Please model this.
Amino acid sequence: MHSLKRALAAVMTSAALAAASVMPAHAAAPASAPASHGTAVLANHDLGTLQTASVTSRAVQTEEPMRIATYNASLFREAPGALIADLSSRNNSQAQAVAEIIQRSAPDVLLVNEFDYDAEQEAATLFRDNYLTVSQNGQKALEYPYIYTAPSNTGVPTGADLNGDGTIGGPDDAFGYGAFEGQYGMVLYSKYPIDVDSVRTFQNFRWADMPGNVMPRDYYGELTSNVLRLSSKSHWDVPIRIGDRTVHVLAAHPTPPSFDGEEQRNARRNHDEIRFLADYVAGGETASYIYDDAGAAGGLADGEDFVIVGDMNADPQRGDSYDSAIMQLLDSEQITDPQPRARGAIMSNQDVFNSLLGRATNNSSGDNSNALRTADFGGSTGSLRVDYVLPSTSMDVTNSGVFWPAPNQPGAELIQMNPVRSSDHRLVWADVSTGE
Ligand SMILES: [Ca+2]
Model:
């Protein structure tokens, strides 16, 4: 026990020293640049402490960039109505921690993954009114006049035995894994007006209708293969209006590439759910197979501004991904990868730190990708990069980050893991501005 404490103390000290050395770099760093190397990266490490300064400097710019974030907030519950009940008061401790993280990050547009859907939008409204617009622990309250949410495939019964356990029903046999309809849904909060009439959703798009899909048809059989839906939750194109400009927020939460067998049904679905987004932004002939829930065909028009957001459940190098699924987005000519970084993600993956906590290290030394990680799954999985904010190359990315403070940084208590205080995922953000 004493050696554990000592080792932890050593880790903390080195973090503190590193933090000190980063400070001047931030002051000197340019406020722009998509930041994948050198001083700009160091600047991003310290978001936790310098959030206020960052917000202030944004306010005096003539053309204020939009801060867009994605956050798998783990605001799901085990029964329908339970989240509404929790959010009906202002003192649910998890919701408070989640809201404080959001307030510290201050996004203008925010996608929340794993937020139970209800048709009356009650939970989404309660979270806004009882948590986001209420100062948490002294943080600045946030106003989101616009909310978008829509039905999810989670918990919707297929009537088939998808997991092959000999019985029909339950979370694994639904169109998307879920104990009830709408569990693990999504909600979008925005300071900018949402062009609701132009929203496109792709909840009902059939997996079999994607040409060249990697569905394991032999596993499912012909009948089931032809009814399965591609999206495990839903895929959304939500246009938001910023002045006279439109930015398409493309939201999804592909299924984890895990909890399956040799057939890799979930890993393959994750791959194709991500491919759908890549094809959608490629547009033209590539997207000609796509149809939305209203029956309109095709993908995004050429030259449109967009930002892909969501927990993609896919790490570029690790985890159970099928055929490097996320590279379909990261390698896309239409997409910028801001490579947001955080100090805490590095810390959580230091070999010594992890081994002391009994976690997997899966630390590939030398590739400097540990700071990109966005979720801490513990156990044998460790932490991975799975949450993404990916703007179109048509826009400038001026800054980006992950809310993952190191143990000595402000807000560190909000991401405690044993027990989980907020979520196993971290909020990821990017500042983007539309071009002339
Ligand atoms: Ca079953």
In short: The radius of gyration is 21 Å. Residues 2-28 form the longest helix (27 residues). Residues 350 and 397 are 29 Å apart (CA to CA). The chain has twelve helices and 13 strands.
